[in-house]
Every structure is written in C-alpha cells, then in structure tokens.
Amino acid sequence: MPGSLPLLTIEIGLDPEIGRIGGLLVTWHGLFLALGIGAGVYVAVQMARRKGFVDEDSYSVALVAVIAGIVGARALFVAENWQKFGGTLSRSPGSARSGGYSGAFRSDSEATS
Question: 77: exposed, middle or buried (C-beta count within 10 Å: 0-12, 13-18, 19+)?
C-alpha cells in the first residue's frame, strides 16, 4: 500500500530500536510506555496521598491496574484478530490500547469497591 496515499504517510528516519542491554532489546515504544506507566503511577499516588490514602495501598492498586491493563490489551487484541490466530492463542504477538485501558479501569473499579 505504500504509494497509494502519499499525502497521508509520514516517514521518520529513526530506528525503532534504541539498542540492547544484555539480551533485552530496548525500543522507543517500550521506553515511552515505561515512562508513561511510571508517570501515571506517580501522579496517581500523589492524588491518593492528598485524599488520605496510604502509599503502600496506592502502589498495590497501581500494580494490579498495570497487570490488568496488559492482560486486557492482549485479550482485546486476540478478540479483534481471532481469525489471524487460527484458533490458537499463542501464534501472533500484539496488543490493543483500548483493551489495556479497559483492563486497568476494571481493576481500579474492583479495587475501590
């Protein structure tokens, strides 16, 4: 499809891989995802502290929300692309942002109720 919509394409001459740390491949997407999660947890803990919650409880809820977000993102990706998997759950990697959001919000609502 390259060339069919040349005005809607942006080419960025930047390698998506930053480098390797041992056997771990570090990418820009992963770096900014980690920074975003860290910033979100920091802001959430500060807001909870102002409301009178204990920091340890805030970090526990954040841990559950991050894990639920990752699981939710994977589950939504699989549900949206089931035909690509051919009936098996371990064939193709990927995730969906909205699934991560719904998983995180669901875990947050369960933790606060």
Answer: buried
